[in-house]
Design goal:
By secondary structure, the protein is α/β, with parallel strands linked by helices.
């Protein structure tokens, strides 16, 4: 979470595009790449992106232990999930893999704390109440750090990043266009932390 101000949330439909996309993002300064498990190409995309020097490639939208096992076989370096269950969380923690589970309520955070976690993805950030909601949640859970994802834009990212408990944000706005445009967007996003 401290490596990049923005973690690109990547939905890859064609694994052949994975390596050039990863190269553009890393060249622009975004090294932490989250490949979502939303398409049949996701596993191949993770494997392709792992060949890019400097890329730290993880799997997102991991929702069960079967998917967790699949992404570990292709070398995922971290796991992001849209929510938190004891079964999935327990398996990932036992494996010693960096894990960012999704939370949207105090109960979610408390379940994570019970598992020994203090870093969470606030998801879906904008529709779960935005910055006001996260500020309200972060107050009693002062020991926690967050990566808001879901509805974050280039325009709203600086406001999120200005809130102390936010270590980074997740976003897809950096992924569109030509590879030169992606690199330019990545460079701007990497500079957001200041």
């Amino acid at each position: 979470m401290r490596t990049s101000a923005v973690i690109p949330v990547l939905v890859i439909d064609d694994a052949a595009t994975a390596r050039p996309l990863a190269e553009a993002l890393v060249a622009g300064g975004l090294k932490v790449l989250e490949v979502t498990m939303r398409t049949p190409a996701a596993l191949d995309a993770i494997a392709e992106m792992k060949t890019v020097e400097g890329a730290i490639v993880g799997a997102g939208t991991v929702v069960n232990t079967d998917q967790f096992e699949q992404v570990m076989k292709v070398g995922a370096e971290f796991i992001v999930s849209p929510g938190l269950t004891d079964r999935l969380g327990g398996a990932i923690i036992q494996a010693g893999v960096p894990y960012l589970p999704g939370i949207a309520s105090a109960g979610d955070i408390m379940r994570g704390l019970d598992l020994g976690l203090t870093a969470f993805k606030f998801f879906p950030a904008e529709t779960s109440g935005g910055i006001k909601a996260l500020k309200a949640l972060a107050a009693p859970f002062y020991q926690c750090r967050f990566c808001p994802t879901g509805g974050i834009t280039e325009a709203s990212a600086p406001d999120w990043l200005a809130f102390g408990p936010v270590e980074c944000v997740g976003g897809s706005w950096v992924t569109g266009g030509t590879m030169a445009e992606v690199e330019t967007k990545a460079r701007a996003a990497a500079a957001l932390r200041g």
